[in-house]
Amino acid sequence: MFNERRWTKAEHYIAVKAFGGAISEQGFARFFFHLHERRSCLLDQNGIDLLTLEDVIQEAMNGARSILAAERMLGSRSVGSAIIVEDEAGRQVFQLPLWRVRAFDALSVSA
Description:
The protein is an alpha+beta fold. It has one domain. The protein contains 3 helices and 6 strands. The protein has helices spanning 9-19, 53-74, 98-110, and strands at 3-6, 29-37, 40-43, 48-50, 82-87, 92-97. Strand 5 and strand 6 form a beta hairpin. The longest helix is centred in the middle third of the chain and has 22 residues, at 53-74. The chain starts with a strand and ends with a helix.
């Protein structure tokens, strides 16, 4: 199973930069973007407020691309990593495996 741990301040800062950081307004729902890796999980303790599922998907895609870009710079690669999005009630609303973003971006570039 996953070893759950809280984000460090540095990890949270990177996540906020990667996922954007929407300002809370009425009518918005709070979503939490957790990064699952092989045997561990970085839990988003703060979340961000978004209006639609489309916004959630876009934030997950942007965050995944930021993670993949950082990995390219470091010369590493996440295998089996995914961004799991949950709502305030802890229900999973979206899951984005990083390999799908890699594949989608590769198809977009070659088209």
